[in-house]
Amino acid sequence: MDRAAEPDSSFARYQDLQMLDFVFAHFSGIFLASSSFFLLALLLHALAGAYSRRGGKKGPSGFSPTAFRPFELYPAALLPAFLAGLVWAVAMVAWFVANQRLTSLAVTFPIITATPGLVASLWGVVVFGEIRGRRNLGVLAAAFGLTATSCGLIAASR
């Protein structure tokens, strides 16, 4: 998309595309992949159940799902998981828009991908208390400083 605006570009036919034109394809791919992984997990769950009901005997193909432990599905987790997916979807749309509006992908992509790690680390320190100790907090502060410096240099490179 960045090169479509260049004169004499072979990408000129993509000049009118907007980042939101890619949202449906992006979300469809994620939906298909996550659904496939979930169906695979259900299949392995069923095989592990059949294996344990047969007294642990291997099937005709020699498949032994002892490494796959059966899991439980919790219906109470479905609504929070769905709401988390909606929040993620809104964030992804905002990410697409930010990548298009700020400058170019070469500048915005590193910045937009670095900041969620900063936010998650802050949640880990402030809310969950995952990082403790003076040395660990010092390492985290150094990582914050390097990330902020690199984001600033990337933004200034435009």
Automatic annotation (TrEMBL):
GO terms for cellular component: membrane. Pfam families: TMEM144. It comes from the Eukaryota. One of its GO terms (molecular function) is carbohydrate transmembrane transporter activity. InterPro entries: Sugar_transport, TMEM144. Keywords: Membrane, Sugar transport, Transmembrane, Transmembrane helix, Transport. It is found in: Membrane. The chain crosses the membrane at residues 23-52, 73-98, 104-125, 137-156. It is a multi-pass membrane protein. The keyword Membrane applies. Belongs to the TMEM144 family. This is Sugar transporter.
